[in-house]
User: Fold this.
Amino acid sequence: MYLSTNNGETWSARGLSNKMVYALTFNDNTIFAGTGGLFETGVFASTDNGNSWYIANNGIIGIVHSFAVSGNILFAGTYGDGIFSTTNNGLNWTSKGLTSNWIYAMHSTTNSILAGTGNGIYFSTNSGMNWTISNLTSSVYDIKQSGTNLIAGTSSGFYVSTNNGLNWTAKGLSNYIIYSVISFNSNLYSASDYRGIFISTNNGDNWVTCGIANQSILTFAINGSNIYAGTYHVGISVSTNDGNSWIENSLNDFPVKTINVVGTNIYAGTYDGGVFKSTNNGVSWSTVNSGITNNTILSFASIGLNIFAGTYGGGIFYSTNNGSNWIAVNNGLTNLNINSLVANGSDLYTGTLGGGIFRTTNNGINWFAINSGLLDLDVRCIAFQGVNIYVGTMNGGIFRSSNNGANWISQNNGLTNLKVMNLLVSGNNIFAGTYAGVFLSTNNGANWINKNQGFNYVPYIYSLIIYNNNIYAGTSGYSVHRRSLSEIIGIQNVSTEIPSSYSLSQNYPNPFNPETKIRFTIPNCHSSESWNPGNNGVGIVRLTVYDALGREIETLVNESLQPGTYEVTFDGSRYNSGVYFYRLVTDGFTEAKRMLLIK
Assistant:
């Protein structure tokens, strides 16, 4: 139980720490909590704002999931044991029927009590002495008042009653499980299982999504000004405004593992549904699976207008006619679980789940393995940077080859997790999406820097993409996160050697206009003063710029860094000519220097 006294900005614990609290209600000056847990379950009560609680279970059985108050009667709905009521604030409870039912929700009106159960809504007009089932027979998870109407969230969508719950009318979202509903400012809101929140401004006649909350984002693609996100639970969602809002696409029946834009066509690879194609920016989709024998599509690549599709268990298929027909091209492949496909010029590389890397130079007519030095053959991603090829693996981290895959070397210095799901190259920068968040390398993978600032909880990263000067991270269960690209790559690791001491160098050039570079070193030692286990034992490094009056004007670095030599650029184009100071603070070390901006 938690309490906020400032509109939810901060919260403080209020007991019941070993309980799962399913329901809360108030009756007079008493708070009632319906609980479950490993120990005592049922009803707990507090008369002092939750500072202390007492058991109020006499006569009640099981886990309490819902409450309703009608006059001086408090009703409690349980998991599998029906409904109970009390008239003396929980000192004694009496069974009120619907035994063996799971009571997910309760609601009281002027004339009746309603119970949402696993097989529909029941109502009673005599304080629970008798119950009558309504015409709504789906599982009901929430019941609320909306003006003179009642609204309900069910296993088959959103419902409305205009006669106190006797009859119910479906009002959309029939394909979704709706766990919670509310009416606010003339709008209706529905909270679904994996599809986030829906809003209706016309009494449920039409619904729109409010983002893609709590989704696992498996892949991204860009087409014009649209960002496409392939999700595990709701298919494809699209953003036309840099990710500020998302709209669920018409392809929403299958998990989408991979998306590929070829010319004016968009291809989506799904789990169990095969390949879908859209010719109108994703407004509508059609299946294009002729010739494909395994309908779980894990990866795409294209060379010109020719498309390759990697499947789970069926190997690689090839189409030369926009997906109308596919033929298998598996000669030489010893593993047919194709998790990644990447084209580099006229060559094609594939990463398999357990068989390592294969390469073809003739559009898949022949494949040959290139696994020398690759210590983990469970390959999750491939990326190219000039002559370098990078491979992310499930348990071995990152490997690099500079000779077309003839040999591989491990490149894991600085990585705190070796499960690498995605690799993204942008100029001299390489981003790695791992089970410990996002990492960046600026020196060909020799060193990696944690770039998880901004995550409230560091999630698994399944996908990464860059668009419009932002980098987007697709996570496992935490949807899409966005960060400014200039912010995330502002600091560069410029040396692989580990320094023996801290240092802060003079900026260069100095004087400068408008940019200058600042270099500093972090040794392999950390005092206990700022050691933070949450940062894997690496202290927070802070580099700030001040004006001549000592006012902080810009923070250049404020993050956990591995030992190494770093360089960051300060842009003074927004500031007037004059003297400025920059200061480095970390692990008990502090140093400041003077610089001069002349315009």
